[in-house]
Amino acid sequence: MKKTDQKNIEEIIRVDHAGERAAIKIYEGQLLALKTIKQDKVLRDKIEEMKQQEKEHLEYFEKEIQKRKIKPTYLLPLWDIMSVTLGFGTAVLGKKAAMLCTASVEEVIEEHYENQLKKLGNNEKDLKEKIKKFKEDETNHKNIAHNAGATNKGLYSILDKIIQTGSRIAITISEKI
Ligand SMILES: [Fe+2]
Ligand SMILES: [Fe+2]
User: Fold this and answer.
1) What residues have CB less than 8 Å from 161, skipping those under 6 apart?
2) Read out DSSP for 59-76?
3) What pLDDT, on the 0 to 100 scale, is given for residue 83?
4) Predicted TM-score (pTM) of this structure
5) Residue 174 exposed, middle or buried by CB count within 10 Å (0-12, 13-18, 19+)
6) For residue 137, how far is its CA from the centre of ligand 1 (angstroms)?
7) What is the reported pLDDT for 38?
8) How far apart are CA 38 and CA 92, in angstroms?
9) What is the 25 CA–ligand 1 centroid distance (Å)?
10) Which regions in the chain score pLDDT beneath 70?
11) Which of 26, 57, 121, 129 could bond 87 through an S-S bridge, CB–CB 3.0 to 4.6 Å?
12) How far is the CA of 133 from the centre of ligand 1 (A)?
């Protein structure tokens, strides 16, 4: 049976830890805007619910980081600032932009988790199961965002590209450092 080597496992956990943390920060940025200058209780509740799931995801990777003594990415402070800013900024732009942000990010994460599932061998059953479950959650978040009005038509397509390209770059960097 296929086995995943140690270096790959470290990269997988490091980047997923960073990504789940970033997801929470994006939602925190959005919630901040939705509680202040862009009050929207309905959207807030949706986001709170998704954030709760991201917390479960993050907790899992935090435990794995400690258990396996993996170094988290050095760039966590930078990702924190960028994620909160992205969340806050998109929520200020409006509901469509806020939901597009979720849809764009989740699409990248879905693909990212799918790639990891292909890489993971049977020596990492638990990790594989968890990523499978988290991937389903992210797909669900993406669908929630589409149902709540996410659109990538017109100018929104530019935002979509920026967010997706940014997320992919962040993923590549966070695997390595
Ligand atoms: Fe997540
Ligand atoms: Fe998510």
Assistant:
1) none
2) HHHHHHHHHTTPPPPTTH
3) 97
4) 0.92
5) buried
6) 7
7) 86
8) 6
9) 11
10) 1-2
11) 26
12) 10
